[in-house]
Amino acid sequence: MPRKTVSNWGNFPSIESEVTELSNIPDIQEFVKRQESLIARGNGRCYGDSSLSHNIFSTKRLNRFLDFDVELGALECESGVLLSEILDVIVPRGFFLSVTPGTKFITIGGAIAADVHGKNHHCEGGFADHVVHLDLLAADGSIVRCSAEENSDIFWRTCGGMGLTGIILSAKITLKRIESSYISQVSHKARDIEKVMSLFEESGDHTYSVAWLDCFARKKHLGRSVFRLGEHCRLDDLPERFRKDPLPRAPKGDLKIPFYLPAFSLNYVSVRAMNFFYYHRQLSEIHESIDHFDKYFYPLDGVHDWNRIYGRRGFVQYQFVLPKENSYEGLVKILERIEKSGQGSPLAVLKLFGKQNRHAVMSFPIEGYTLALDFKVNSAVFRLLDELDEIVLQNEGRIYLAKDARMKPDSFHKMYRRLVPSGTFRSEQSERLNF
Question: Vertex 23, ends 17 and 25: CA angle to 5°?
């Protein structure tokens, strides 16, 4: 089979890989039994190298819906089905994903492997908390049905296990009922990091909360933010113009970045200007609106290939979480260090996590604050991120593996309990981090 160049959403790193796509389960079983090393890969929307290997099994052809129990609000499908495809099926029937990340273009298998989280982790947990069961293909070709009650050890090592326990073939998840496709949103301007953290703490009874941060703000404005709350609109809350069709699917985005932008396009001046404009475009301190869920949850999905704005060298996303008791001090140090470096992120998103799922060995969330940042690839950024790793470690935090492309093994082993590898399922990330 010919090899091809493969990279994930950050376009960094890229490697030459042999990619196999199969849809017939017996064929997949025979294929896996013949391999010495491989990793499963869905739609490639993780950011680093966690689904890269010189031998990749693509789950894209595992794309069938298996069952939708409307009475129980549960859906079962193969692992290559995208969240966008699930939403197209469930939303018109009055259901929504219990947990969703900031893109709908990931597979359900990838969502489980990374135990993705959303804007509601503080009250509804992560994706794995809503998985009824999954079918896992092991290295010897056997298929294991596992859940929190059945084969629970392998289940919790698979949720957040970054694909190292086997290939997820299918899964059943629980859904939440909704009355409309719309989100009631309240946006607050926060003058600094202390104010935005107080807004998070005061808003624990709201379902969804998230904040955008200006990484170039400094001194008394350090961490200035736009903080957003959201709730699913009930029919009674909808304006008259939405009531005739309260459950429309997401619109199909037609905007596209047609080519990689020149490397100089994102620079200190342009990114600082973008941050300044984003904060000041909301004129009032508090603004209320009603938006389609697609705009609230997936604002970047409306622009196809938006990753090209970072140029051909790509970008790294850096996401960390700090325990709540250390979050303020740690966030201040990190934001000050970023501002001083001049390597500001055009996208910085702050969320509050709830209780840690202590069953999931490798799941990222711990109770506290998590910040996700995008940086264009250059040597200065890697030096900066090594320094940020030290601050994260000093504050007993950890880095999200689904977005990592450059962490060092020593840092990883201080952050996570060791996952016992299967031996067959290996990725570029697991080799780099030695786990």
Answer: 110
